[in-house]
Write a structure and sequence with these properties.
The structure is a single chain. The chain has 9 helices and 10 strands. The protein is of the alpha/beta class. It has 3 domains: 60 residues, no CATH class; 148 residues, 3-Layer(aba) Sandwich (Rossmann fold); 33 residues, no CATH class. It has a 6-stranded parallel beta sheet with strand order 5-4-3-6-7-8, sandwiched between helices. A two-stranded antiparallel sheet has the order 1-2. It has a two-stranded parallel ribbon with strand order 9-10. Helix 1 crosses helix 2, helix 1 packs across helix 8 and helix 4 runs parallel beside helix 5. Pfam families: ADH_zinc_N.
Length: 276
């Protein structure tokens, strides 16, 4: 998205296409910006954004990469550096390791020096997870996740589990953790987990959190810091962003249909018809 001639606050007449709206500092017409989250409505050729959520995209980052990585990349940053600060020597588990956020978590955690274990559903995804920095890949359709984690960790368990699956993985995630370990639940692709008895946590003095990206990027400084680390890690090669599918905006309905039909992998980007 580029800054258009419209400001982010109402005014009697639209300003000239060669100007920016009132109150905007540090930006000019033609600057490339991106955003993630609110306000909703990115299935559009043009959008008016509050200046406070517009993030400058550095020239080193491809526009399609930026479009595909903003939400997933900042989610990975918040999970790894703020919700639980992964460091060298930690052993972590990433469910859905070949997924959009999972792939970035594995790459980033590997670069931080952690031992990364990932769960996937098949051999093809296992190969991708290995490429993305997983030291151990568990194909959960063929192997018992808890047993394999205990084997890999010599019975010690994990420092943290990043769980985007939810209902199907909650119990295994709890069992895999070491005493005082962290379960970070940030998705529910298999459905909402059942109510969690406090005794499940008390058995090993565990921590459970359900973070929202928006609460960790609530200020302009937090937002810029998170996006800046994502862009820096793309530029230095720590993060590889796979944009495997693009659709014209006029064909936008195909994207969720193909996603639900498991016809896609990596990121999907919608392209305005005028850019085709």
């Amino acid at each position: 998205m580029s800054i258009s001639g419209r400001g982010s606050t109402p005014r009697p007449r639209c300003p000239s296409p060669q100007t920016v709206g009132p109150g905007l500092t540090g930006g000019k017409v033609g600057d490339v910006v991106a955003y993630a989250g609110n306000p909703m409505g990115s299935y559009a050729q043009e959008q008016i954004l509050p200046a406070s959520v517009a993030i400058p995209v550095p020239p080193s980052v491809d526009h399609k990469q930026a479009a595909s990585v903003m939400l997933k990349g900042m989610t990975a940053h918040v999970l790894l550096r703020r919700v639980f600060k992964v460091e060298s020597g930690h052993t972590i588990l990433v469910h859905a390791a070949a997924g959009g956020v999972g792939s970035l978590l594995c790459q980033w955690a590997n670069a931080l020096g952690a031992t990364v274990i990932g769960t996937v559903s098949n051999e093809e995804k296992a190969a991708q997870a290995s490429q993305d920095g997983c030291h151990h890949v568990i194909i959960y359709t063929k192997e018992d996740v808890v047993a394999r984690v205990k084997e890999i960790t010599s019975g010690k368990g994990l420092n943290v589990v990043y769980d985007s699956v939810g209902k199907d993985t909650y119990k295994a995630s709890i069992e895999c953790l070491a005493p005082r370990g962290f379960l970070v639940s940030f998705g529910q692709s298999s459905g909402k987990p059942d109510p969690i008895p406090m005794s499940d946590l008390a058995s090993k003095s565990l921590f459970l959190t359900r973070p929202s990206l928006m609460h960790y990027t609530a200020t302009r400084d937090e937002l810029l810091e998170s996006a800046g680390e994502v862009f820096a890690n793309i530029a230095n090669g720590v993060l590889r962003v796979r944009v495997n599918h693009t659709y014209l905006l006029s064909e936008a309905a195909r994207a969720p249909a193909d996603l639900e039909g498991r016809k896609t992998s990596g990121s999907i980007v919608l392209i305005p018809d005028t850019d085709s």
